[in-house]
Request: fold
Amino acid sequence: QVQLVESGGGLVQPGGSLRLSCAASGFTVRDYTMRWHRQAPGKERELVATITSIFGSTYYADSVKGRSTISRDNVKNTVYLQMNSLKPDDTAVYYCTVFRGGTNYWGQGTQVTVSS
Reply:
């Protein structure tokens, strides 16, 4: 069974940092392209970051480029999203996703709130 469990969210001050984790089971993350999405109230769901399976190439939305890093730990089978210089606009529920076997899989999400 494919399972994705996000963690690491919470309340953080503007300018602060947060590391989100996505613990995967039922597949090996290094064999699949992994993505982070976010959903904020009143906004469309946004693709935040991508890491590919072959070379581990990374891609970022303009809104987080330069202050966010997606990575994976193949031993722990976990994908991370390191976010620095956080802004109130980063407030959202963050989801880890994978497309596998013709199906999109989503985790339950973790809430990030950036506020003073």
